[in-house]
Amino acid sequence: TTIIYPGLTQFSSSLEDTILEAGGTTLVTIVRTSGSEGALTANLNITGSATTGSDFTVDGLTFDSHEGEIFATASFADGESTYTFAVTASDDLSDETDETLQFTITGLAYPLSGTRFFPTATIGTRAQHTITILDYGQQFSTNKVIINTQGQKINGATGDGVSPNEFELTR
Of residues 115 and 70, which shows the higher confidence score? Predict the structure, then answer.
């Protein structure tokens, strides 16, 4: 009997993202650590105030819905330790407040085989990833723009703080 270690599955170190309505995109990564043997499917629940289709689209996940809830799956191949999908905000032309969506890893599935023993796969502590979609009308209501030094985010800023790896431009 071969022992397979499917590992600990969770979102990468970034647990929050902010994107602009009307085409803002972010990449979300799920990682497997302490083992990546065997195929593995991460089951995700998607919640929040943003609506699939009219407020955002996702490329790289398989979707399903049941009784008004939206579910998705991310499928890892044997040996694959990262899985990345893209979330793109849509411009719904509605004047509204910023919206959020949360991806939560709710379960893990892996095939069992008569010749292999699979220890239980584990969901890590970083099981939820939140994305805030800044409303198009709201993003131009301030003269501040924050650009992080790694070039990953550009957004209409609100609030008082700037994180240590960001700088502020004011006109």
Answer: 70
